[in-house]
Design brief:
By secondary structure, the chain is an alpha+beta fold. The protein has one domain. It has 9 helices and 14 strands. Helix 3 packs across helix 7 and helix 8 packs across helix 9. The two termini are 38 Å apart. The N terminus is likely disordered.
Length: 344
């Protein structure tokens, strides 16, 4: 679920023109909602030397970490988790989320970024204090009377690149259908066991519940005369637990459950099409028609992530030493399954 502003880009897309021609498409955006002017549509950009990336601070880097003191501005009642908006000492605005989605969200964005996908600038903050807190409702469960808090996800809010409110996309309607870039994103969704894969079809639902929203978003990162649109999955909080399609069958950031399902991550290959054990929202749209060639493409980047990077990324996301050991082993097992079918 996305609020109507997005983090500032910290790096430029460094791909050569020939790579961009192969990996993205131009033309009118296939958004559901507002029609966008013709421009360059991007789902992925070359991450460069994957093994050299810092998975502690991720896309935003160490220099953009939230800087205390934090001034409370308002409570955000969107979604299903306690959230507030704050401003730090640098004048940056942050969406601060609490609850079980904090750690999986931060770590998932590190892994996605290492593979070349667009993500938010976000950080795990273990402890802090908000000044000027007042009139809390849902967030009273997470913020003490003196403004102190623990275990928070700080996600940067900036006016540019611009979150295109009202412009959404779906797994079945976008400029990247049939590409390894889109199928690679789906593989990563399954690798992290994210079951909350709502898209524009859910946002267009007549339901007014907190679940009637999309976790796929479009941001404009360059304006006229050559607008550029970045497509991404924007909410990774329902990751690293048990996948499933119904409440009671799934959870978030529970490594023993994640570990238990790892053996069923890849079920096999039939005529070059991979079979998956995953289940989640829009299940068939995520799991079907992914080929071994898509796995090979993704492994050019995912396969270069080291155990040390995973450990540092997990530690920077608030995982305990036991959770780090558990997740590194389980993630490595799943990557190993991909590597085995890629060698067929």
């Amino acid at each position: 679920m996305r609020p109507p502003v997005r983090s500032a880009s910290i790096t430029l897309v460094l791909s050569l023109i020939c790579i961009l021609c192969a990996f993205c498409q131009t033309g009118e955006s296939e958004s559901q909602g507002k029609t966008l002017p013709a421009g360059e549509n991007l789902l992925w950009s070359d991450p460069g030397d994957v093994a050299a990336l810092d998975l502690i601070d991720g896309f935003g880097g160490a220099g953009n970490r939230p800087a205390p003191p934090f001034q409370f501005e308002s409570e955000d009642m969107s979604g299903t988790n306690p959230k507030v908006k704050v401003k730090d000492s640098k004048g940056h605005t942050w969406s601060v989320k609490f609850g079980e989605e904090v750690k999986p969200s931060v770590f998932a964005t590190r892994l996605l970024w290492a593979c070349g996908y667009f993500v938010e600038t976000e950080y795990y903050v273990s402890y802090g204090r908000l000044e000027g807190v007042k009139d809390l409702k849902r967030a009273r469960s997470a913020i003490q009377k003196d403004g102190t808090f623990t275990d928070a996800r700080f996600q940067l809010r900036a006016p540019w690149p611009k979150y295109l409110d009202g412009s959404n996309w779906s797994w079945t309607s976008n400029p990247f259908l049939g590409t390894s870039q889109l199928n690679g994103l789906k593989i990563l969704v399954m690798l992290v066991s994210n079951w909350d894969t709502k898209d524009a079809r859910d946002k267009d639902s007549s339901s007014h519940s907190a679940y009637a929203d999309s976790n796929l978003a479009i941001f404009q990162s360059a304006g006229p005369p050559n607008p550029r649109y970045e497509y991404m999955m924007s909410d990774w909080g329902a990751s690293f637990g048990k996948w499933g399609t119904a409440p009671g069958t799934r959870n978030k950031f529970r490594c023993l459950d994640y570990q238990a399902q790892s053996a069923d991550f890849v079920k096999g290959v039939d005529n070059d099409v991979v079979r998956w054990g995953y289940s989640g929202k829009h299940n068939d749209d995520i799991t079907q028609n992914i080929h071994v060639s898509d796995v090979r493409w993704l492994l050019q980047y995912l396969g270069k992530v080291t155990d040390n990077q995973l450990r540092r990324g997990l530690a920077g996301s608030g995982a305990t030493p036991d959770e780090i050991d558990c997740y590194v082993g389980s993630i490595r097992e799943r990557i190993g399954q991909l590597q085995r079918i890629a060698s067929l």
